[in-house]
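Incident log, structure service

09:12 report received: a user says their structure output differs between two submissions of the same chain.
09:20 pulled the input from the user's history:
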Amino acid sequence: MIDILLTIVLNALPLLILIIPLFFMWKKYVGKVYFRILVGIIVFFLIYWILPIIFQAGSTPDNLKISGSSDFVLGIKYILAHIGSLAALYSFYPLVTLPFIFFVAPFISVLFVWNQLRKEPGSFKENLKHITYEYSEGPYEKIKNEVLKNDWSREKQILKLMIVLLPISLYLLQVIIDISNLQNISLTTGETALGWFIEILFVYLAVFIFSIELLFSSRIALKGKYFGEDIREQIYKSLYTVGAPISILSIILFLIQYTASIFVIIYFFAYFIMASIIFVLFLKVFEPISILIFLKLINWCKNRGERISKIKKTNWYYMIVTASLVFLVFFILNIFAFVPIFRMFGEDQATIISSASYSHNDPTLINAYRFDLMNIFNTVVLVIVPLFLSAYAMAYTLRFVKSVFLGIILYLAILILFSILIMFIGGNPLINFAPEEYWLTGKISYTNAFGIPFYISRTAAFNANLFPKGQITLLGILAFPYLFTRYLFNIVIWGLMLFYIGKDFKVKNVPINDKNIQRTIFSSITEFISYEEYLRPVKPHMITKKETISIEGPELQKELVINLINQLDGEPLLRDVKPDDMEKKKKLYFALKFLYDNNQIRIWNYEFSYTEEKVEKQGLYIIYTDGRDVFSYAFDKNSDQDAGLISGMFTAITSFVKETTKSTQLLKTIDHGDITIMIEYGEYVFAALFMKGNSAEVRAQLREFVNRFENKHDEVLPKWNGALAHFKQDDELVKDIFTED
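09:34 re-ran on a clean worker, output below:
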């Protein structure tokens, strides 16, 4: 009884220790992020270490032998190393696997956009020019806001879709097993590439799903219509409709043909669900940077001819120098730190892996201990140190390079070159292109280190035989894109996150003509612009000032600065306040620098822009689901309409459309000459906005208004008796949401 109690307590203790901090920070932003990490660790622990015990029911546990009747110190050291190994293996998902998904998905999303634009009326080039999107918050602010909302609806939807598609993936596994001659595969053998196939299949499927989700979350639109949302809805519906019956058929076929592989099926399901849960847990952490990459790709496509000719090559050599220094630092760490530390293990890597093999019949506690330590060591040396060394250096140097795209390309090229050279001479490369030789699971074992039998699922290794004897296999071909690019893409994703994490984003609308405006997205800069960039800018800069400014210094300087401050009302572009005279330009530059250094103004750097139709809002009408008018607001007093008449009109139109078309979709837009009626639906009311022109931004505002209106009156609307007095103060809500920049 004591040995069972000790086993339960010591195995559960790491998770209990991790749960305790959650109680002290649950309501904070950090607590919400920590909760996502913690749930991922728990799921990972259950699937990677606990579930394999099911497959080993009836088999004799390994005896992790010790020299003597007990060894309390080694037992404690082993438990700590085992916990560290768990954390190290779990960290591989947010550090390597997920960044691959969130980097590749934006490129797939661009293909969806390209395909959609070819279907739309008009030329592809013209349609591309009319694409709009939303990005008004910096990545950190967006992550914080999304996480604090505590809304899991999207995560649940994606997880549900992944599970629906899982049996189809199982059928694909069946085909691969046939082709690869792995029909008699078993999790009790020590050599199989099945684990790698499961991970790679999950990664590719997650890339596909998130590329569709990205079309929705980026709010990409064409001529005021969110076509990304429509694509997502159509594909998801098709996958649910077609995927469910095919999934059921796949399970039946697999069970009939591969009855002996039932444990493989269970493990496949469990691993896939585990990876999917971890994926959705980190969705809102990585999504903002993915959206930014996607929108920059779209912006580059729209202006590719102009952008290529205008790429600023100033300071390009900074990236080459930085990459070389990063390699040098890592090389020195290898020689003077990593290699000496590994020698302390007492055995070479091949021997440690062999002694911890799943099929090893005579493991010792010291073997298991060394293998867990090696997993921690490899994660630190091959993943964590090179990743954050490379990512931080890239993020820091990008501040001084004028072209982020060119800077990243040069930086990665140098890292790749040095890594290949190091691989040839037999060292640890900064970017690891070699596929792992093994994958891990748990194997039921026990030790008498504490004087009584203590059971634990030791970390065991399977040989990942992707390229047996150097041969190219089907699994090897499938694995190639993921295995040989993941350590590159994680540097880019984490580098961009570090680069943008401290930046704020701001939107400015600039009128182009009577019908159109240019909506430009700027990000704050952390280093004041150079004099050369000030004189010959490639991209526009915007200036904003604090509400209250205090100036200290000589009277002459004060006068110059005060005159400048008076020009900064309305958040002007730098080019609009820059004088023609060269001497005055010089004085203005140093005056701006003085204000910037004293934290009185902020300089904003151009990120991307798009052109959209100028909108003239006329009237907003809120209508109850049964047709009664609830609230109305006139933006233009000359266009004010009778609210009762409007609500009656919509009741008649919606009934007519449903009867004649038999469509189940809701009416979202009505075009009548130069008037557009935009409609958004809530649970109890729908809103109709009359306006001239069309804009996706206005639709987002209308959707926000409906949500906030229903939240504000959540006690009144469910059983509304027709009294309008509840909504008298909602003019302020309209002004708050629909205020022009």
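09:41 both user submissions now match this output. Likely a transient worker issue. Closing.
09:42 reviewer note: The chain has three domains: 2-500, 529-613, 616-738. Residues 72-119 form the longest helix (48 residues).
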